[in-house]
Amino acid sequence: MWGILGRRAVVVDGGFSASCLRSRMRSGLVSARSYAAGSKEMTVRDALNSAIDEEMSADPKVFVMGEEVGQYQGAYKITKGLLEKYGPERVYDTPITEAGFTGIGVGAAYAGLKPVVEFMTFNFSMQAIDHIINSAAKSNYMSAGQINVPIVFRGPNGAAAGVGAQHSQCYAAWYASVPGLKVLAPYSAEDARGLLKAAIRDPDPVVFLENELLYGESFPISEEALDSSFCLPIGKAKIEREGKDVTITTFSKMVGFALKAAEKLAEEGISAEVINLRSIRPLDRATINASVRKTSRLVTVEEGFPQHGVCAEICASVVEESFSYLDAPVERIAGADVPMPYAANLERLALPQVEDIVRAAKRACFRSK
Amino acid sequence: MALSRLSSRSTTLFQPLAAAFPTTLRRHISTDTTPITVETSLPFTSHLVEPPSRAVETSSSELLSFFRDMALMRRMEIAADSLYKAKLIRGFCHLYDGQEAVAIGMEAAITRRDAIITSYRDHCTFLGRGGGIFEAFSELMGRTTGCSKGKGGSMHFYKKDASFYGGHGIVGAQAPLGCGLAFAQKYSKEEAVTFTLYGDGAANQGQLFEALNIAALWDLPAVLVCENNHYGMGTAEWRSAKSPAYFKRGDYVPGLKVDGMDALAVKQACKFAKEHALKNGPIILEMDTYRYHGHSMSDPGSTYRTRDEISGVRQVRDPIDRVRKLIISHDIATEKELKDMEKEVRKEVDAAVAQAKESPIPEPSDLFTNIYVKGFGSESFGADRKELRATLP
């Protein structure tokens, strides 16, 4: 059933947005997210809220835990209404003690419950990282399958706007390096719903990296995706936009930037294929390599620190698996190698912008065949 | 200078046994369950709660099983010492000999639906939960017949079907994990409790207090057991804790201090704690205990404490000898019968070691098993991914 849903979801996604974009390109309109009359839209926030709601309704073992998730309705309102609907035995407001409540969540998962633990931002997950890695990720392996940990750690990840160095780090690379964890990063509302539902149902620990600036963004959403049984497959990337000249891989908020970059590149006759990774671990190397074998050029994009990042892993994978297909050196666009500054102009310089992605793609393209 | 301070403080460890027991008519070695009442060696000291009575109900069969089970634990740890020196056990090996009464007394007070979670000093706790010595030795020697199929090692024994959740290498991590197990028991309305064991070294960890706070706020059925063997690796309690009265450290959480070398006192305290936790939320038990070995096999254990201290505790407070004396004075068995029992136990342990030594090591493909429950066909890699890779089902 899983596989069928997954395939159906991918076909719907590819069919809907790809054909929508193609028609827009032909007519010369720029908007990436216009839609046919009558189809629905949903914000990422509502998508996440509905996903948690439906999974709580379906499985009494699912519960929510974190700071301000209950009475405050969620620091970013992702858990709005859940306390009223399910009561204090399913939605728990915790004190500001990440190490303590994360450990308690993992212990509850050892015993077979399905906690959804919210970090107000993933910066605070560092206070609990020992439990995520040593208590959760490694347990199934160390116990040779006796103790599995069906827990989800979710919350906003990466830069917001003007929140400074201690509140802006991207943790994708750190968590995705750990065997035993799954690491997901949604972009659209459909991603948010499908991946979070998959994460909550998953028997292994999942790190679910959201993005604060995406919470309020609206995306078209299909009937399929609104169904309560909707799930997206873990470990499968999505081709957001097909192209033939250069492959751009990225995740989360940068998917939107990459799509804008693809529009700009199209104006200059460069057809970019944009891959939304969706899953950082397992990484969909097959889709990435198949794309690069088609385009022969790679630009990888992420918001996080550049050294030892997700981009580095993708570049290595492509060089290892598809070397003879490459017509240009692999390109990385990442956050600057600095702690995040506060001043708006410096913050802008510290994060990838659309023009950075465009420039890198052009560099990748102007090489002799 | 440090040692003289040591010897003056260590006299508090030598608590003499209680006075003579009443003699009774001679009985055969029995599975007799008629109740015998024994007084604990010391009264319980308490914090914010009325302590339980010193009079503990036991029976011939219980005392004999205490003796045998503790003798088995003791023998297992001594055998592990030899195996480590023979390099058949690698890495870390933290031995529990001296502390057996805590594991045994606890089991006598609880059921297999109550959960236990502990630190890396877990071999005897595993045995107490019904784990076998063959599985234990196999695991220590990295064989597939091990309780974690050779994938865990000394610090990662588990027995989920007996509600034993390991086996944890990070000092103090088991404190919130155990409160999480208690959370699940309350959530699922199981009428069971979780015993979370940690040492005096872990007792200062912040996450312990974070977990205690939540356990007390949410009334979780958690019993936190500080196995105070007075040394956190090489650091004595007076050098690491401003307040080594660990049973009081819970502040608003009640606590009980227990002679951890007296299996009956441990049993009484655990029974009391379970009832308390089911009704009133968390409670701390401080078990005053002692480890004969060093922190691990890499630690001789004599650079930070005197040999006199170690042998002194062994002479005056050994948990097995205490039960031995009880059995003899109650005419439950003779000294010879008990010695024969110990010989039998030794044979059992030797046989298990021999069998474990012959057991197979894991297949190379086992490198890639149990990373995930559901791998979704993703790949994992060996050191050279062009040479060794696997698809995870």
List the helices and strands and how they pair.
The complex is a heterodimer of chains A (369) and B (393).
Chain A: H1 2-27, E1 40-43, H2 44-58, E2 62-66, H3 82-86, E3 91-93, H4 98-110, E4 114-118, H5 129-137, H6 139-142, E5 152-156, H7 172-176, E6 182-184, H8 189-201, E7 206-210, E8 218-221, H9 223-226, E9 238-241, E10 246-250, H10 253-267, E11 272-276, E12 279-281, H11 285-295, E13 298-301, H12 310-322, E14 331-333, H13 344-350, H14 354-365
Parallel strand pairs in A: 2-3, 2-4, 4-5, 5-7, 6-7, 10-11, 10-13, 13-14
Antiparallel strand pairs in A: 1-8, 6-12, 9-11
Helix pairs in contact in A: 2-8, 4-5, 10-14, 11-12
Chain B: H1 2-10, E1 35-39, E2 45-47, E3 55-59, H2 60-85, H3 100-109, E4 115-117, H4 123-128, H5 133-140, H6 174-187, E5 194-199, H7 206-217, E6 222-228, E7 231-232, E8 235-236, H8 237-240, E9 255-259, H9 263-280, E10 283-288, H10 307-317, H11 319-329, H12 335-357, E11 378-381, E12 389-392
Parallel strand pairs in B: 4-5, 5-6, 6-10, 9-10
Antiparallel strand pairs in B: 1-3, 2-9, 7-8, 11-12
Helix pairs in contact in B: 2-3, 2-11, 2-12, 3-9, 5-12, 6-7
